[in-house]
């Protein structure tokens, strides 16, 4: 018997993960996606024989993926431990070969990538990070021997943060103030509230090493100068479970998730832009969601609505302001949005000389702190830049025609609060980046070998993905926008409305949005399926007013 109808707005990785879980819980689940393809930020561009993943490329925590593919009708996997004993242990290292579990391999093949990243400094030297402590020590010794001791202390501090912040608290939904207050003493004890760059600087004297051990938060939209040191856990997440690649690209993972949803009986509709979330006043007087209205006027009824759309878009455009007591426009606009990106997708001919690059390359510019301040605070385009250069054809030649490489390079830039006119400056900016890769010898002769070039700017995030100010990662992760301060996965304003994805808790990044989906599904299960929730009046954790929680009644 169905538990009811669920609508999920958006087919990002978080939206698809939530839909899979809800379908597993017994809801008839329909995903509504405005684009003609799934994936949101993880959508794929196929052109001139090349396949480009447009967004995420670094997959971490493969057992989160395995959990999703293991969902079965009537078993959404919500009661199983989040970190089962078999995935824990001391320094569980990347295994050779296929890294997904048995359920994953029915849908997609995942394999580990080594090194995790090659990090180039502006003087041409580099650091290969692969999570192997001995190899890491060797490279630290070569850069600054005096920092070896600091590395040991950094490692111990980051490990303690990872254990408390990720393994123990990672799945906590901070729905009320006490839940947050409870963890404050631990965060202070672990020094996890200091900004990450200052935290790293306590352990390393070398500027290069300070950068190596703090840049990772940029991959989830966090400014290392502002993000709390709790994010040092990313370093440990990578070290513990490795970095992985879906053969065929991240798009193959997204396609696998769509198939999984359909195999469970759920559906996805493309080209369906939701214009509003319908609400009415429930018996308790609180507003509750009853369905959605599409741009073409179609009305769909639902027992619950999950929005995977941008947080600000959901509130300022989809939920009428009369229902929004906790999220009025001024509060939504007051949230700091993460930075944006220019991403250049390009294909080029191979030569007889193999590329001297890795699958994942971080190419740091001459300035670090000043550049971050320009991007995040001053919102100007600096004269120099840092970038992440992704060459998946080094692992998976199927993404390019014979004799070619497919690549993308991603450059952090200010979001559209900057007032920059990308239609006017985009082409010149992109040429500057590609010439840099050629002239600095990263890809020698690139301009002569180039056979395809296309790019996205902050306008893609604003106009195609409907993200406020063209943010690339949702609200910026900072101390005052994390945990309880980050948008809640159960709407504080409207019953039966939930949020999932980068704009909700715990935040951006593929593992986080999968966690977000599990947290949201747990809240739905608590609200709709727990025997205690039927026909009772209780005080919501999120709401200051007593109200009637949704009853089963389907
Ligand atoms: C270029 C880039 C590289 C990245 N690299 C990495 C990486 O290597 N590793 C990593 O872990 N993370 C990475 N990230 C972050 C990660 O990709 C995102 O945090 C994550 O994919 C966001 O997923 P989401 O579930 O929040 O949904 P999104 O991907 O934001 O999808 C939301 C969906 O909602 C749809 N939508 C919006 N409004 C409506 C509406 N009104 N009606 C219908 N549909 C609507 C949109 O079309 C979209 O499909 C990267 C991000 C970018 C942009």
Summarize the structure.
This protein has helices at residues 13-25, 62-69, 102-105, 133-143, 148-168, 177-181, 184-189, 196-203, 207-212, 233-241, 250-263, 311-318, 329-334, 369-378, 422-439, 446-449, 458-464, 510-529, and strands at residues 4-9, 27-32, 44-47, 50-53, 110-112, 117-120, 126-129, 244-246, 267-269, 274-281, 287-294, 299-301, 304-307, 340-349, 360-363, 387-390, 404-413, 450-456, 497-499, 537-539, 546-548. The chain has 554 residues and is α/β, with parallel strands linked by helices.
Characterise this structure.
There is one protein chain. The chain has 554 residues and is an alpha/beta fold. It folds into three domains: 1-88 and 99-113 and 249-335 and 478-554, FAD/NAD(P)-binding domain (3-Layer(bba) Sandwich); 147-242; 340-468, no CATH class. Helices cover 32% and strands 19% of the residues. The model is unreliable at 91-96 and 534-554 (pLDDT under 50). Flavin-adenine dinucleotide is lined by residues 9-15, 32-35, 40-42, 55-58, 219, 273-274, 308-309, 313, 341, 343, 410, 465-466, 472-473, 501-502, 508-510, 513.
């Amino acid at each position: 018997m169905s538990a009811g109808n669920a609508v999920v707005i958006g087919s990002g990785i978080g939206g698809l993960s939530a839909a899979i879980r809800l379908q597993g819980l017994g809801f008839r689940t329909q995903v509504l996606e405005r684009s003609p393809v799934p994936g949101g930020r993880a959508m794929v561009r196929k052109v001139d024989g090349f396949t480009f993943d447009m967004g995420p490329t670094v997959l971490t925590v493969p057992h989160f993926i395995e959990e999703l593919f293991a969902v079965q009708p009537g078993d959404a996997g919500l009661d199983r431990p989040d970190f089962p004993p078999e995935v824990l242990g001391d320094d569980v290292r990347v295994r050779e070969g296929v890294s997904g579990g048995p359920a994953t391999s029915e849908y997609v093949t995942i394999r580990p990538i080594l090194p995790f990243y090659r990090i180039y400094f502006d003087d041409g030297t580099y650091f290969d990070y692969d999570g192997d402590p001995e190899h890491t020590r060797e490279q630290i010794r070569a850069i600054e021997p005096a920092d070896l001791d600091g590395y040991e202390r950094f490692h111990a501090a980051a490990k303690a943060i990872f254990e408390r912040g990720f393994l123990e608290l990672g799945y906590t939904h901070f729905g009320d103030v006490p839940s947050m207050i409870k963890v404050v003493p631990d965060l202070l004890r672990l020094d996890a509230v200091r900004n990450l760059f200052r935290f790293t600087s306590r352990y390393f004297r070398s500027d290069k090493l300070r950068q190596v051990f703090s840049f990772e938060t940029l991959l989830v939209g966090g400014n290392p100068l502002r993000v709390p040191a709790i994010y040092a856990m990313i370093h440990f997440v990578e070290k513990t479970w490795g970095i992985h690649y879906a053969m065929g690209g991240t798009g193959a993972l997204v396609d696998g998730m769509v198939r999984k949803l359909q195999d469970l009986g759920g559906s996805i509709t493309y080209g369906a832009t939701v214009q509003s979330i319908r609400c009415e006043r429930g018996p308790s007087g609180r507003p509750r969601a009853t369905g959605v209205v599409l741009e073409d006027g179609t009305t769909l009824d639902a027992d619950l609505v999950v929005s995977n759309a941008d947080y600000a878009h959901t509130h300022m455009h989809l939920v009428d302001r009369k229902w929004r007591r906790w999220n009025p426009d001024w509060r939504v606009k007051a949230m700091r949005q993460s930075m944006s990106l220019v991403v250049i997708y390009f294909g080029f001919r191979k030569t007889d000389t193999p590329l001297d690059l890795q699958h994942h390359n971080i190419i740091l510019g001459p300035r670090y702190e000043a550049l971050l301040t320009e991007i995040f605070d001053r919102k100007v385009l600096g004269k120099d830049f840092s970038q992440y250069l992704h060459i998946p054809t080094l692992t998976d030649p199927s993404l390019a025609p014979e004799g070619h490489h497919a690549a993308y390079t991603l450059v952090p830039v200010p979001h559209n609060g900057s007032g920059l006119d990308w239609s006017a400056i985009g082409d010149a900016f992109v040429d500057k980046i590609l010439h840099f890769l050629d002239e600095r010898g990263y890809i020698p002769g690139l301009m002569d070998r180039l056979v395809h070039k296309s790019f996205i700017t902050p306008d893609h995030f604003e106009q195609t993905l409907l993200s406020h100010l063209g943010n690339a990662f949702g609200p910026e992760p900072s101390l005052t926008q994390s945990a309880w301060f980050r948008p809640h996965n159960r709407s504080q304003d409207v019953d039966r409305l939930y949020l999932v994805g980068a704009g909700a808790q715990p935040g951006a990044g593929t593992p986080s949005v999968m966690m977000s989906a599990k947290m949201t599904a747990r809240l739905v299960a608590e609200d709709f399926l727990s025997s205690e929730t039927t026909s009772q009046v209780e005080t919501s954790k999120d709401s200051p007013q007593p109200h009637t929680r949704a009853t089963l009644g389907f």
